[in-house]
Each structure stands twice: as C-alpha cells, then as structure tokens.
Fold these 2 entries.
Entry 1:
Amino acid sequence: MDPGGVTTALVASDGVTTPSGASPDDDYWRRPDPAGPPDSPASGRQRSPGDGTSGEDAGGVPGGPAAAGYTGPPPTSPPPPGWRPPVHIQGTPPRRLPPQDMAALDADEQRAQRVTWGMGAVTGVVLLVLLCLLCSRAFLRG
C-alpha cells in the first residue's frame, strides 16, 4: 500500500522511470556506507548472500572484517627448470614433399589465364548484343 492508503498494482515496469535512489524500495539494494559500522545480527539488518560485503563472502569468518576488494588470483609456483610434460606417443617425422616442376606450373597458369580471358570476352560480347537489342527495341517503339 502507498502512504495515502491506495493499493497499487505490481507491474514489472513500475518505477522504472524514477531516478536512481528516489524510491525507498531501492534501499535494500544499495551498498552500505563504507564509513558506517559493520553489519551485525544486533543491527537488525540482514545481508543477502552474494552482495559482497560480509566477511564470509570475502573468505573470512562470518561477522569478521570484510576484505578490501579484489586482491587478485592466488600466487602460483613455477615448474622446476627443464620440466616438460610427459610424452606418451612419439609422432612420426614429416615426409618430404615431391619436387615441383616449375615449367609445367607456369604453362598451366598461362592456359588457365587464357581460358579466363576468353570466357570474359564471350560474356562481354553477349552482354553487348543484349544491350543493343534492348536499346533498338526501345528506340523503334518510341
């Protein structure tokens, strides 16, 4: 109920356009004041799990002081010098590639280039003939 005694419908978009902090319903989700006293069971306010402010979430004891932020990953120790992972199967060495005939490759490339240019020329001639036919029909009718 509202303070005026009017019951409002619970809608998912209710209060979306209000500025942040304008609604007392947002107080539950606000971060605590860092200068304020730590929460305790005697204060009457309970924390939800996962809000990141209690000592238990920071890895400490419940009710203890909270950690001062993210301290980074735990330290790691490097492996001993010269350490390698164990080898279970030895792979075969790569085989030699066959030699290439450069003269034959050049001849094949030239033949392919001639075919490509020939197909392009035929396509161009066909398109030019079609363009001439379409233009002649347009001029003969008009």
Entry 2:
Amino acid sequence: IGYFIPDSRVRSYTVLLWMAFFVAIIVDSFFLGRRIKKTVAERLPDAADSNRGLIWYGVTRATMVRRWRFPKPAVSVGDDI
C-alpha cells in the first residue's frame, strides 16, 4: 500500500482501519462462539462436553465468504432452518 498511497497519514489510517477490522472479527467470533456453545448445549445435551470442534467449525463457517464455503450451503439465504 505504501507504493500506491504516498501520503503517510492515509497509510497510517489504513493500518489503523485494518487493525480495527481484525479486532472486530475477533470480538464477533468470541460472541458467536458463546452463542454456538449455548445452542449446542440446548440441542445436544450429550455432546456439551466435546463441543470445541463444533464451535470452531461454526465460527470459521460464519466468517467465510458464502461463495467460497466448502461444502456448499444447503439452504438459501433467508430460508427457515
């Protein structure tokens, strides 16, 4: 970016914007993980002890761009589950 943007103030703000974006992703993932853990405990009480993999899967799936997900989503956006 430094080669394309000669103004050092703009470069500094760009770096701060990227840092804020990454912090927002981490905070969102934390709260999403807590929500997944609660939902798994309600729906699958037997699997409540080993839900670490489910939380990781849910967070990575939720933060991935929908077109790039693999396997492909089985339901369309807005459909009831």
